[in-house]
Structures are given as structure tokens and as C-alpha cells.
Amino acid sequence: MNQQYMQEALALARRGEGRTSPNPAVGAVLVKDGRVAGRGFHTWEGVKHAEILALEEAGENARGADLYVTLEPCSHQGRTGPCTEAIISAGVARVIAAMPDPNPLVSGKGLRRLREAGVQTELAGEYAAEAEALNEAYVHFMRTGLPLVTLKAAVTLDGKISAPDDNQGWITSETARAHVQQLRHRSDAILTGIGTVLADDCLLTDRSGLPRSRPLLRIVLDSQLRLPPTARLVTSCRSDVLVVTTSAASQERHRTLEGLGVRILTLDGPGGRTDLRRLVQHLASEKYLSLMIEAGSKVNWAVLESGIADKVFFYYAPKILGGLHSLPVVGGVGRRRRADAIQFRGVSLHRVSADEFAMEAWLVKGG
Prior knowledge:
By secondary structure, the protein is of the alpha/beta class. Helices cover 29% and strands 24% of the residues.
């Protein structure tokens, strides 16, 4: 295996980020006699899979070539026919995949079908972690049947997200805020609470300027339907705003918001709140692979306590607010004993700017 070509396939796959959901981002490179004969990467809009695009570019040069691909080729009929059959028909000699496809419809069957047809296959295990990280939401969805839920926040060094009197300005820098837009671009849906909407009149849009496979679904938790019809979320709605409420909410407000194009989902949960677990299941049923949460202290606690969160991504600014009245990143009742603290694993740090960093970590479920 030539590492250069797998690295190129991974780079191609990254060009599909945000443009493939609910499919994975995949890159493919065909190599014949030491030269690249064809390249391809998948986008939802483009329909064709990366392998097919590479085969089409290579033409007759695909016969006897090596195919480097970031994910095991599919072997089932979906929006397109199985890539395995196209690879076999083109006469490709060898397929090197960075990782197996966790989709139960494929999961080893693609490579097995190729071997049965006389195509050599190889798993490049040293690239498996990188390939999986590239499609972490897809992999998570295929393994759990649920979207990957990330809790994002911008915090001071002492863990605060809000001052008690005046919250004009930003906690983090413009560089960090631009990085947030990258996270939004890679997400299928974003969620906040009604308190944040009323305080900030936020839009919750993907401002990366990059193309998407579908609009970012903007979700508001609003048990009493307090969302004003004049809120920017509502006036900018293009069937991309979902308000999650309870049966206690005003039916008149329900009708008003629906008349303005807002989707309303009634999910009664404990204590008169919305049911977060059922919301995540609803998103799964509509094949939303990822959900990012940008909310206040109370919602952040509800997300962690309910167990729906899978990971956190906290941006830290070189500031301290201090005091007992500044809001912490997570509020609510909290845990009363150190032994009951919510635990994390796989902690990693990311340099964001000269004086800022981000902390990414996965929740230990049941901790």
C-alpha cells in the first residue's frame, strides 16, 4: 500500500464534509502503474459515490488498477447501485479501504463480495481512526441508531458562560466563533432553549458559507410556546425551524407559529418539560445524524442529566468572571456528591488561537 494515495483519498473525502448527510463522506483514488488514473468524492447532490466517479474518470485505465477508498465499498442497492459490482465490472485488481462500513447493510459484505469476484482486498488499519473521525456522526448513527449529540459552549477559565448584569460582547474571539461555524456546518441540527432565544434573538444558522446537503435544522425547546412570531428564528424560517413543546402550551400560539412555517413537535416529558430522549429518537427517524446543542445552563444540565449527550466541545477564553451569580456552563440541581460526578473519557485539547483552546471529550454513559 502506498500511503500517499490513501492520504489523498482522505483529503478528497473531507471536501464532502457537510455535503453528504445522511450518507458518509468518502474519497476514492484509482492508481494504475504508479500514476493516479481517477479521483472522486461523494456529495448528496451529486448522487454518485466516490468510487463511481473515480472509475468514470479512469475509464479503461481502471482495469488492473488499485483503488484506494476511505470506506468499504457498498454492496447493496440504495439511491445508486452497489459500488462493488461497478468495481468488479471495471476490472479493478485491488481495493484498499481505510475502514469497514458500519452500516449493517454493508459491514464486511462489500469486501467479501469483491474477494469472491477475484479482487484483492486490504484494510489499511493505520488509517481507520482518521477515517472514522471523518465520519464520526455516521459511524455513531450506524452503531447506535441515534444521532451524535454534541454539547458546545464558550466559557471562561472558571467555567462561566454569562455575567449577572451585562452580557454585551463575546466570551471568545472571532477566531473561535469562526471555528464554531465549522462545527455547525458539519452538524445536521442545532438546538437551544427558549431562554437563549428570548435573551439573544439568535438565528442559529450555518454561516460558514459552504454548501450543505440539506438545511441546518434549528430546534428550540419551548415547553410553553413563548417563541415570539417576530423572533429572527421565525422570520427567517424556511421550513427549517422545529419548536419542541408540551401539551400545556397555548393552541392559539401553536396555530400562529405553524402558520408562519414553524414545525411544532409536542413531546411531554417529566416535570412539565419536553422529553429530550424522544426528541433524539424523532431526529433519528428522520435520519438526522448529528445534533449540536448551544444553550444556557439549565438546558445544558438537562442534556447531560438525560443522558442524550455523547460528547462536549467547550471553547475556553483567557478570562475569569468569578462571583457566585455568574452562570456556570452547567446549572440545574447538579450532582450532590463528588462520587456521582458525570465522567468523561478520550479528552483532547485543540489550539484555537494564540490564547484560546477547546476541550473535546466523550461522556461515560451511565457515569
